[in-house]
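User: Can you predict the 3D structure for this chain?
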Amino acid sequence: MGQRQAMLAALAGVRAEGTLQSVEEPRRAAEWIAQLGRRYPDLHVPLADALTGQALVDRGVRRLLDLEEPALRDLVARGALARFALLACQSALVGRWLQSQPGLLGDEARAIDAYSKELAELRGRARAEGEGAWVQVALRLLRVRRRAAFLQIMEAEIERRVDVLETMRAISDVADAAVLDALGLATACYGVEDLGVLVLGMGKLGARELNFASDIDLIYVCARTPSAEEVPRLQSAVKLLTRLLDEQTSDGFVFRVDLRLRPFGTQGPLVVPSEAMVGYYEAHGRTWERAALVKARVIGADRGDVGARLLQRLQPFVYRRYLDAQALRSVAELKQAVDSARGRAAALGPGPGWDVKLGKGGIREIELFVIAFQLVYGGREPNLRVPGTIEGMRRLTELGLISARDLMHLIEAYRFFRWVEHRLQMDEDRQTHRLPQSPEGVRHLAWRLGFEDAEVFTRRLASLAARVEAQFGRLLADAGAAPPAAPRWATLWEDGRSAEERLTWLAEQRVHEAARVLALTERLAQPPRAVIGRYAPSAERVPAEALVAACLDSGGGADALSLAGELLERRATRTTVLELLRASPTLATALASLFSASTELGRRFVREPVLIERLLAAAAARRREPEVLAEEFSAEIARADAVPEGIRVERRQVLLRRARAGEETRVMVGVLSGRVPWEEGMEALSDLAEVTVRLAWREAWRTLADAGQAPRAPIGALAFGKLGARELGFGADLDLAFVYHGEAEDMTPCARAVQRWLRVLSTPMAYGKCYEVDLRLRPDGRQGTVVTSVSGWQAYYEERAHPWELVALWRARPVAGPTPLQARLRALLVDVLKGGSPPHVRSSWSEVRAARIAEESQGLRLDIKRVAGGLMDLEQSLALLAWEQWRQRPRERPVSTLACLRYLVDRGRLEPSVATALETSWRSLRRLELELRLRDPGSSRMPATPEERRHVLLRAWRSLGQVGWAVHEEERWWEGVLGPVRALLAKEGLAGV
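Assistant: Here is the predicted structure, written as structure tokens:
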């Protein structure tokens, strides 16, 4: 019997096996459910739907029994019954809120806006009345707004619609809004607005990592020193600010406020002038205060330059310029602090009573591990100066201070522990981090988290905590140390075991392609060219062995090790590479992570070791403006003018390829390190492609002009697909069509010019091709001419284009050519897109799709672009829907995938929940596509072997933060990614002809 059928039977008073799988009070649950069913015999179906699948279902039933009948029927009528049950079953406190105020479940967003407007309007009263009756109004508004916001946040996390990191940011945003409103009211009340009072968020608030029951650690600062007359008013203002947030009323509190991190702690003034604050830290600052200031943040983005200048002035105190003994002692002090805290917390392993924050391998160890490295290296590496724990870990990996594998383990543990912490705290809004003391309590918590039993839950906790504890002890103890002279992998080249014994040992270490790894290490240790092992020169051995060990530690296996071997064996550059490895102990880990991620990118470093310096100085990983890129590339290409004239043209094209490859590598290093979001990386790669296309045309035109063959008519290029949408990925080709503005006699010279343009872009030379160009979307496709006149282009779309081509045209835009021609093309695009018949376009597109799906079904390996529900279905169907909507009221075209989703939601064409699911699908597929193309540029097919497939999926899941997925759940993950797209197509009648 299914759960829903069992629940219907239980409501009818029939004993049904399986109904009471996760309840707190088994004996009473059946009686309560039956009582609820007897009371509302006409509501069995909605009640069963709402209660089925809930953990601790008796909590929800009890609250439903306590509701007055009109309130319950109102919940049913408003479609809010399922929300009530979900929240009441998960949180005893929220259940009581909803029982007393079932109307809370409404349009929370609108209520929050209304409360915010009322708070803003109170400032006038505060300014005019002083501390009067408005204070009670403000106390209530701040608290009910927090309650409404927390209902939204809790529901989203319980349903796993958001990541735990998004939950932390959302709670922090609620705190920011409360602090700013309270600050505005308090300073207006006491007339001290001109003193420039700032609030520094410290700790979890500063890092935007608050949990549901966090204190907020605040420091109050004023921009200038107050006069003697202003001091009492300033002190009263910040006391009122604290009261507005912290006071317990009948509506609860907003956030508990902790002011102990201010200068001189509880003995210091409540508010400190910025000059005095800087002076305090310079004279009295201690190590723990340096650690606290790592996460400091000025609350509110519109607080002027004072806060930014203050934090900038504190940087020399927090981040010492040199890696000195004091900095290393700071690491030891932090370790000692964790051990001391552990003595107060549960020192036992995960189980009843374990402290998820302070216990061995818990949250505090992860946070202090990151802060320790920031204190040690932040003076020399400004990119480490970030408040967030996850972002700090990612930057440690980018700089090679921890390996990609360590990063994955720490992020996975941090996310899971914070998830558990949130579920502990949302139950009663208590500031607790301990698991329940009883086995029954742990079992109930496991059920609320979606685990079938407590044993699976505690095993997961124990596994993650053990990894954190091991990494914390190993890595933190070694902070600042040089690479080990004898890594554990030295077994392969040091201890004289037989080849069979070494293969067995590698198998025990779970090394992929063990035989190949063994052969590669033996070759590197073989005299007379040995770079590792006993026969290697001592000056080369330590840095070379560090790189080999890092490749094996990274999980990259034989492929990563092969690239490292090629790099170490190149005579012309080996000395330079070894010197760089010796000078920067972090470089070995950084190179190994890159070799493990992408053979294609790794080969670029092997081919041109000068790129290694870019890896060391990856501070400029963010997207750069196209104009800057064009200027840099032009200067690089101009270097060819110094070579003999006979090879100058070829040399200019080689230098263009070199500059393009270097910029692409820079962007991808930023993406793979986690510093650059993949969406920003796609924009940067699109900018790079546009700049390259334009410079390629300049080179082609220059060659033609020198030969007296330059065309008279202006020529432009239209980009379709990913480049048109500014979503270009790594290894992608360019969908282009070429157009000229001229007469029929201009066709031949223009075609000759475009052929030259294409050769500059696509001819293999040193540093490969610039891009492969796909012309199939030009008028008449493969049968069409390589370039079309403007009038011919317009006539094609108006007279003989297939209706489905309008879908492809939706993402088109001019990317090269004279400004007037590009403006003309943009206007023509609008005119053409206004035409077309939606039913014909739908039918035509469905036919083309059906042919594509049928062809894909014959393949042996899944193509994530072409499969039903894949990238082509998702992106093209959204383009079709956006075009249909846009035709009704032509304005600016939303061409990117995310822009189409936002546009369709804003126009009421898509439900927000559907758009969210589709966005998740798109992000998942694009990131998986990146992992595939890192292995095989241009490919979107899943690997052939199960092991390779597993490797690609795990990398994609980790980069997406979807660390909860296991390989055996692959099929369910695919359904979650492809399912929303297929559902959209089915709903829109686009799934078949």
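Strands lie at 197-202, 215-222, 256-258, 271-273, 297-298, 715-719, 734-740, 773-774, 787-789, 813-816. The first strand starts at residue 197 and ends at 202.
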